[in-house]
Amino acid sequence: MGRTAIKLAVGMAAVLAVAGCTSHGQSGHDHGAVNVVATTDVWGSVAAAVAGEHATVKSIETGANADPHSFEATPTDVASITDASLVVYNGGGYDHWVDDVLAGDPEVDAVDAYSLRNSEEPANEHVFYDVRVAKAVATEIAKRLAEIEPTHADLYRANASEFGKQADAIAESAQAIGKAHPSGSVVATEPVAYYLLRNAGISDRTPPGFASAVEEGDDPSPADVAAMLDLIDTRQVSVLLFNPQTESPATKQIRDAAERASLPVVTVTETLPPGADYLTWQRDTVDELGRQFDKAPQTNR
Known about the structure:
Blueprint: H1 8-19, E1 35-40, H2 41-51, E2 56-61, H3 75-82, E3 86-89, H4 96-104, E4 110-112, H5 131-148, H6 153-180, E5 185-188, H7 194-200, E6 203-204, H8 208-215, H9 222-233, E7 239-242, H10 249-260, E8 265-267, H11 278-295
Parallel strand pairs: 1-2, 1-3, 3-4, 5-6, 5-7, 7-8
């Protein structure tokens, strides 16, 4: 994807820079400690929930202001990946630079979250908004860690099981919103919460051209912006989902229009808010979505 794919030249340059100074034949296992590296703090949080105190977990990209779409790996980042006992990454082109690193070092043990999604669903790389995928990732992490460090295998599996139970509860809360508001719908400045909406049964009425342009890092056409504004101004939708990490003049225009129309706005991010772990982040997002739907104005469909 145009905006999500990191420039190949950058990734390969980083790989070559590290290749000359890094030697590891066992995916970092010869350091004697389990070392998990995640591309973002989202997947790092999932890994930490499973590993507990029996592995170190490092997230390469962190912070509420980060934009994973525009991330460029450094030689240090590449070294972290190649030296890891286990790598957890998003996949689906979201953190494309990792594909280049792993291709150059196939012995690295890695969990690709995107590969665990329902392949029958339309492609969308933001699988971290699908708690079912996060649950599957936690289970896979537990399996891999148990193979790497069998002493704590039962603990890893128990932690993954508990994570899955909480993820299931969040999924049920999301579904309850859709059932309570069967005619509710949203528009979004970026389809980052695609899976949340799909699992909840909430319609996303964002014009496809607008969503596609934002995903590719392009300016939406005047016609698509006008279509978005019309949906908001005429109250044809219940809520606006706004991603501040990819704000542009066009998306700010959309948010301003929602505020003028007193349309509820729910913030959706791609990395963890300060102090939050994965489950808290998703639970808070679902709860906020439910609150805003409850107070949303009557739509004119």
